[in-house]
């Protein structure tokens, strides 16, 4: 099953995780973006995106069929959301604003079948996005194979990051840099902000957890990989669409440089 989880497989081979942020619910857009070579994971954003649980199954199918791991970010770390995401065939789940080891343990429990957790078994759709994996195989292998990702993006989460990283069953810590700067009340990109990000990275390295971070450009993602992060997102669908059209409009009107469009987190493109 590990080989069918494209992101985990890539990391096991020593490759880096390169993904993007999907906020639109339509499968045609997801499949179109997935045709771009080089991706091995997509984030399906059900927290801030226009995506709900009714979209999960079709999006997971469209993305996984292109050799890319669909990871679903749910809006809150409640068990029923975790169940809906994983029962739709996601290769992993991401929960926002994990602030304590207790919360991390609760997330792990909701993500694992008994005896390691409380996840219920019964969905007939879970194994559809794992090539060569039967429903019986899924039941046996899912606990170890699926990715459990928690976001560190609050002051409390930063203060407890070493304890969160030590929780058994957490696979990856994902830095949400925009909410982190807001929660710490520091300027985005300031020394205080970068020191906080470095602390999260070190906690991952010390506890052998996968380190990951949200980025708004390929250049920024390359810098984060050079810093030591193993997994990055490089852009959102909305930012890429608006910045692309802004450049074309500027060219058509002879305006030279494209108008800067506020994107995710207020970043301009």
Share in helix? 40-55%
Average residue-wise pLDDT: 94
* Helix count, DSSP H or I runs of 4 or more residues: 12
Shape: globular
Rg for CA atoms: 18 Å
Decide which structural class fits the backbone. alpha/beta
**SSE order, one letter for each helix or strand:** HEHEHEHEHHEHHEHHEHEH
Outline the biggest β-sheet: 8 strands, parallel, barrel
Strand arrangement across the biggest beta sheet: 1-2-3-4-5-6-7-8
Low-confidence segments, given as residue ranges, are: none
Report the β-strand fraction as a percent range. 15-25%
What secondary-structure arrangement, pairings included, does this model have?
Blueprint: H1 6-12, E1 17-22, H2 27-34, E2 41-45, H3 53-64, E3 69-73, H4 79-87, E4 92-95, H5 101-111, H6 135-145, E5 147-152, H7 155-159, H8 161-165, E6 172-175, H9 177-184, H10 191-206, E7 210-214, H11 218-227, E8 231-236, H12 237-252
Parallel strand pairs: 1-2, 1-8, 2-3, 3-4, 4-5, 5-6, 6-7, 7-8
Helix pairs in contact: 2-3, 4-5
Summarize the structure.
The protein is α/β, with parallel strands linked by helices and 269 residues long. The protein has helices spanning 6-12, 27-34, 53-64, 79-87, 101-111, 135-145, 155-159, 161-165, 177-184, 191-206, 218-227, 237-252, and strands at residues 17-22, 41-45, 69-73, 92-95, 147-152, 172-175, 210-214, 231-236. Helix content is 44%, strand content 15%.
